[in-house]
Please model this.
Amino acid sequence: MNLDISTSMKNILVALFLSISFLHAQVSTPKYTVSEVPKKMSVKTKKQRFYYLLVPPIEKVYKELDLQYKQVKQELQDNNASIRSEKIIRLKKEYKVSSDDDLLKALKPHPRSIALAQAAMESAWGTSRFIREANNVFGMWSSNVKDNRIAADEKRGGTRTIWLRKFDSIEDSVRAYYKTLARGKTYKEFRDVKMATDDVYLMVSKLDKYSERGEEYTKELASMIRYNKLTKYDQKEENE
Model:
């Protein structure tokens, strides 16, 4: 009788161990990776993979930036204009602005739907060589020889090498992208509109300088947001 109980307990423990091992493997092994693109993916699978890889880092960076924006906004409201903390002074220098209003325009993150649409377009839904080899989601160029970067396959004008930045992670790429739109003189009108309205389609219309395709690029972005219902990722803001 004791032998039977002992054997039964061993069987239970073995089964439990196998179950835990299986669950651990499921948790520790990612469903998709950036560097590996499954062959012969359906459109549905390609988009599933893209959202799996891009939604979490965009969500994380957005929340970080939004929290910083709200904290700075509160600090600016609480303090006299003549009293500015070292943090505010540092941020103005970092974002290349001089006024409080321009700092807030720079710090306020634009909607997730726009980031996702640009990520999808610039990385061919997460399958381009630049995202696979350099974690470069948004096709960000590099003109600094000190940057960690990779060369594009095609040369500009047939002779000049085009360099793209190489990032340590997708999250780093997302963070650099947000900062580019927050600091560049090219995107001043975009920041003005972002501050004045929640209309993502109006914001997108001011991103014509992001691509050499100009207005055609912004129309495709708007269409991508609408067709894929990407504004659902912005609805989270209402509950935060």
Q: What stands out?
A: The chain has a mean pLDDT of 87. The first strand starts at residue 149 and ends at 156. Residues 124 and 216 are 17 Å apart (CA to CA).
